[in-house]
Amino acid sequence: MPVKLQSKLIRKEQLKEDIFKFSLDAKEIVDLAKPGQFIEIRVTEGLDPFLRRPISIYNMDKENGILEIIFRIQGKGTEILSKRKEGEKIDVIGPLGYGIFKFEGYKNIAILGGGIGVFPLYELVKEAKETCKVNTYLGFRDINSVLLEREFENLSDKLIITTDDGSYKIHGFAINELKKDIEIEKIDCIFACGPLPLLKAVQKLAEEIKIPCQISLEEKMGCGLGVCLGCAVEVETGGYEYVCKQGPVFDSKKVII
User: Fold this and answer.
1) In the chain, which residues fall in CATH 2.40.30.10?
2) 169-225: per-residue pLDDT in tens?
3) Yes or no: is domain 108-217 CATH 3.40.1280.10?
4) What's the predicted TM-score (pTM) here?
5) CA angle 154, 160, 164 (to 5 degrees)
6) What does the alpha-carbon distance between residue 96 and residue 115 come to, in Å, rounded to a whole number?
7) Secondary structure of 215-247 in HEC code, one letter for each residue
8) CATH 3.40.50.2300, domain 3-96, yes or no
């Protein structure tokens, strides 16, 4: 069950002009959370904006009870959040989401991320590393968009970085590099998070080569608890499931995106 906390902002870092990293004192959430889950934050004490903001869990320091998130300013709510100061208390609910990354039983996994979709993949790499060989493929728009290279490099058995315009490392898309390695690295499962075109491409790839694939979806969430029904996604069996409740991680064969 998720818990509600007044969590102290221990450290605030500005990674890019519009991207921030918060370290929160949130032991109760850290003790429960799994890779792929998220939290919801009330960004202001007032009513504007009224709805909480869903933010993926980036990293967990279980020994010290520290929860880390990384977010990009994308609107009024996240802009307000970016102005919070170290030492302030932040209203947090989590962990949320029952669909988590499940890496148990696999030996050689591929982790594919694009843009800000790389953030929720870090905790997965960290935990999967204990039992799997981890091959990580990260794609960014250009050299100025590249984030967390050193962090992923320190944990991954193999790290490939691509940029759309060729301004850094490999020119092209990360999924193309993954395709080259499927047989070489004996990949037995793919995990992905990123923009919709990337998720559609990896969904198609996994179906073609008959490899299990888990994808983390992003939808606008009003409540994060499956009450408002604002984050519906169509499923292959008919009807809908909800990203905040059944997700955010789904078997790629299950959802229509």
Assistant:
1) 3-96
2) 999 999 999 999 999 999 999 999 999 999 999 999 999 999 999 999 987 666 666
3) no
4) 0.95
5) 130
6) 22
7) EECCCCCCCCCCCCCCCEEEECCCCEEECCCCC
8) no
